[in-house]
Amino acid sequence: MMETKMKDDPHHSMTPERKARLEEAAKHPDEKDLADARALFVELAQTAAGKKPA
Question: Residue limits of the Flavodoxin-like domain (predicted)?
Answer without folding.
Answer: 4-41
